[in-house]
Fold this sequence. Notes:
Oligomer: single chain
Shape: globular
Helix content: over 70%
Transmembrane segments: 7-24, 30-49, 56-76, 82-103, 110-127, 158-175, 210-229, 249-271, 283-302
Keywords: Cell membrane, Membrane, Transmembrane, Transmembrane helix
Radius of gyration: 20 Å
Largest sheet: 2 strands, antiparallel
Number of helices: 14
Membrane topology: Multi-pass membrane protein
Protein name: Inner-membrane translocator
Organism: Acidovorax delafieldii 2AN
Amino acid sequence: MAFLESKWGWLLLVALGLAFPLFTGNDYHLTVMSTAYIFAIATIGLNLITGYTGQFNLAHSGFMAVGAYTVGILTVDHQFSFWAAFALSGAVSVVLGYFLGILSLRLKGHYFSIFTLCVGYIMFLVIEKWDGLTHGTVGIMGIPAPEPIGSLRFDTPLALYYLVFFWLVLGMWAMRRIVNSLLGRTFVAIRNSDELAEALGINLMRNKTLAFMLSVFYAGMAGGLYAGFVRFIGPGVAGVEHTFDMTMYMIVGGLGTLLGPLLGALAVPWLTQYLQFLQEYRFIVFGPILVLLVIFVPHGIVGSYQAWRARRADREGAPRA
């Protein structure tokens, strides 16, 4: 695990991602993995505001839907190119996130989560009921695939796989730079204690809002990719169950770690896929597995490993002292 968190470990993960199509049997596996990558991007964003800053945003899937509908509306109704609409998917989410952030982040703890839960449901209702803009319950069909870039075409599952993988790698690289910077340590200080962070001279509202905007930017970009990949979107994209799925990914992998949410977002969908043969009974198996993980690995896979490594270092250091 320590090796995976090093530079060489990250390079190994990138190499495995590049080689995955060579070992997969069919396009279905590429589709499952590509979808997992898209939700991994959104989960990484949620982990920034929840795991690193300590604010549990239950409207995260709503912002993912904002990005998806930005691409769908602009490409289908206004004939924008996919790339222009994709660039705006993140920008629209950030603008909306700024105004909702300065309003909601005045609340703390459960009050913030309940408020964002209500905001997320309002976003779902707006998408479902505003037929003139979002096409209502019918959804938006016929979203065009990403236009070619030079000789690169994105009209096959393999090409779309590598496109999504590229944005996942770029998103992970940027997030790694953020969390290892002074800004990332500022977010962690806010998570640990608002009062202590404020005593150190940290502007709470400004930094919380910045973390919120960065978080929803990842959600918006993931939504834009989702629209271009699936080519059809409906109000269900904004459902709060997607936020709970992403929360599960963080908990399984390790909340507040860089590698954990990525591992959770990739491992859990594949586990559910392999339990498909159980049909409606698969959750009878899947549920207890999650319960056991929460009981015996409360900090997630990566978080528990880091805690174990820290305890071992303390035990080894005590005799020397």
